[in-house]
């Protein structure tokens, strides 16, 4: 989907569309901040939002970068995806050693620095499977 019109950008922003990440940034007049379209910050009123193609354009207009989503950095890796990737590697290593019962959810979560409940949730969200099914 192209994000060339303000309406398309607003739609992507309200849905936190991952496909829009890197295509544009949006600014909030009331806070003088600009963010990525996937930023977890509270959504501003439509009347306070402006759209820019690049972070440099937003900075030239007088906005500063969001400290939460860091839109000025080109390739920010998603920490959830990194955690799930590391866990998958650990699970596969345990399977190769023919010891699948040795790895527990609690241990996997601890190794990636998350609580077991949150780890289980993001693992299922990212892979479509629970760690046990994987």
Automatic annotation (TrEMBL):
SUPFAM superfamilies: Ada DNA repair protein, N-terminal domain (N-Ada 10), Homeodomain-like
Keywords assigned by UniProt, alphabetized: Activator, Methyltransferase, Transcription, Transcription regulation, Transferase
Coiled coil: none
GO molecular function, one term: DNA-binding transcription factor activity
Residues of the HTH araC/xylS-type domain: 85-134
Cofactor: Zn(2+)
Residues spanning the signal sequence: none
GO biological process, one term: DNA repair
Protein name, per record: Metal binding domain of Ada-domain-containing protein
Naturally occurring in which organism (per UniProt): Massariosphaeria phaeospora
């Amino acid at each position: 989907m192209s994000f060339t019109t303000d309406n398309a950008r607003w739609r992507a922003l309200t849905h936190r569309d991952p496909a829009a990440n890197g295509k544009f940034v949006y600014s909030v007049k009331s806070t003088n901040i600009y963010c990525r379209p996937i930023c977890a910050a509270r959504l501003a009123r439509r009347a306070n939002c402006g759209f820019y193609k690049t972070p440099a354009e937003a900075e030239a207009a007088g906005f500063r970068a969001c400290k939460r989503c860091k839109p000025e950095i080109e390739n920010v890796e998603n920490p959830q995806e990194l955690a799930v990737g590391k866990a998958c590697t650990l699970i596969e290593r345990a399977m190769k050693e023919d010891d699948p019962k040795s790895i527990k959810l609690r241990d996997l979560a601890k190794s990636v620095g998350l609580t077991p409940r949150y780890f289980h949730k993001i693992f299922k969200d990212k892979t479509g499977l629970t760690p046990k099914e994987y």
